[in-house]
């Protein structure tokens, strides 16, 4: 038996409960895991409160990521005792997710936990941090270098934005943090932001004849925008 947050639908309304489940109730999959940590993501909150159309099949265990230990495996790559992380793959949407003590998943979803991280640290970084890292890597792949100019991170005090600020500053970039919460300026500077701009400044309409030539390849007047949705 194990504990899980279980979502079900009652007359089109989402019901969330802390349930005691048997392992036989776990979905099919060739690797069984003992989950050690998960992250509470914005998407999980939407799923649990029945907002948005996050959950695609019922009943559902929410939790878009997890870190845990292989307990049993019918796949040659994974052995009992190995530490793994899972992020994405429809966890908490189409596959039972991380807000439980056990999971059974297909081997293809699993990644080995890098030895530099504890499971707790991996989930503290979470899918939001992973997304920020992918953004930073994409910018590097597109040739952005620390001497290319300032890098603008929007939504800087948010989950993805704050880790993007820390990662880019750590890589030597000059980070400009855009935030709507001026009281987070100290936090953003501590993460490595060189300066802070008010979100309203960026939202203001441009002049009728602006320098369109400066708005190329995601670069806005020598700054590069990290759009975490792209
Ligand atoms: N979290 C993930 O795992 C993940 C994965 C993939 C993609 N994403 C996407 O990444 C984006 C950020 O996600 P998140 O998890 O970091 O969310 P979050 O923690 O809620 O951060 C979003 C930030 O956006 C800023 N913001 C809020 N309202 C705004 C507005 N009206 N105009 C401009 N900025 C506004 C705020 O930044 P300030 O507080 O600095 O003002 C807020 O903190 C979302 O679009 C999400 O869909 C997230």
What structural class should be given to the helix and strand makeup?
A: alpha+beta
In CATH, the architecture of the largest domain is: Alpha-Beta Complex
Q: What's the count of strands?
A: 13
Q: Output the radius of gyration.
A: 21 Å
Uncertain stretches:
212-225
Write a structural description.
This protein is an alpha+beta fold. The chain folds into two domains: 2-113, Medium-chain alcohol dehydrogenases, catalytic domain (Quinone Oxidoreductase, Chain A, domain 1, Alpha-Beta Complex); 125-226, Rossmann fold. Helices cover 24% and strands 29% of the residues. It has five helices and 13 strands. It has helices at 42-49, 119-141, 159-170, 185-191, 199-203; strands at residues 2-10, 13-21, 31-37, 65-73, 83-87, 102-105, 111-112, 150-153, 174-179, 195-198, 215-216, 219-220, 223-226. The strands form three sheets. A six-stranded mixed sheet has the order 10-9-8-13-12-11. It has a five-stranded antiparallel sheet with strand order 6-3-4-5-7. The protein has a two-stranded antiparallel ribbon with strand order 1-2. The longest helix has 23 residues, at 119-141. Mean pLDDT is 91; it is low at 212-225. The structure holds NADP nicotinamide-adenine-dinucleotide phosphate.
């Amino acid at each position: 038996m194990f504990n899980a947050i279980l979502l079900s639908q009652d007359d089109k309304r989402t019901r969330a409960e802390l349930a005691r489940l048997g392992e036989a109730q776990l979905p099919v999959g060739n690797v069984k895991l003992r989950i050690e940590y998960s992250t509470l993501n914005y998407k999980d909150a939407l799923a649990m409160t029945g907002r948005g159309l996050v959950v695609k099949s019922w009943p559902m265990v929410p939790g878009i990521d997890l870190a845990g230990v292989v307990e049993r495996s019918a796949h040659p790559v994974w052995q009992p005792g190995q530490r793994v992380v899972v992020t994405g793959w429809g966890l908490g949407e189409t596959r039972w997710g991380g807000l439980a003590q056990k999971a059974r998943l297909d081997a293809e979803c699993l990644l080995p936990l890098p030895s530099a991280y504890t499971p707790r640290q991996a989930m503290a970084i979470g899918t939001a941090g992973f997304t920020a890292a992918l953004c930073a890597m994409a910018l590097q792949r597109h040739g952005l270098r620390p001497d290319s100019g300032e890098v603008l991170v929007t939504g800087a005090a948010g989950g993805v934005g704050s880790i993007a600020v820390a990662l880019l500053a750590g890589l030597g970039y000059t980070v400009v943090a855009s935030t709507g919460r001026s009281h987070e300026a100290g936090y953003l500077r501590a993460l490595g932001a060189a300066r802070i701009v008010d979100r309203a400044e960026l939202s203001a309409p441009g002049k009728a004849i602006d320098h369109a030539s400066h708005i190329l390849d995601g670069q806005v007047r020598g700054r590069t925008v990290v759009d975490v949705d792209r």
